[in-house]
Amino acid sequence: MESNLLTGRVALVTGAGEGIGRASVLALVQHGARVVGCDVDEDALAETDRMANDLRPGSSRCIRGDVTSPLDIGAAVAFAVAEFGKLDVVHANAGVSQPASPAGDIPLNLWRRVLEVNLTGLFVTFQAAVPELVKSGNASFIATASGLGVVGAPGLAAYVASKHAVLGFVKSAALDYAPRGLRVNAVAPGMTDTPMLSSSTTPEIRSDMTASIPAGRFGKPSEIANVVVWLASELSSYVVGATIVADGGDSID
Ligand SMILES: NC(=O)c1ccc[n+]([C@@H]2O[C@H](COP(=O)([O-])OP(=O)(O)OC[C@H]3O[C@@H](n4cnc5c(N)ncnc54)[C@H](O)[C@@H]3O)[C@@H](O)[C@H]2O)c1
Question: Is 159 known to be catalytic?
Answer without folding.
Answer: yes
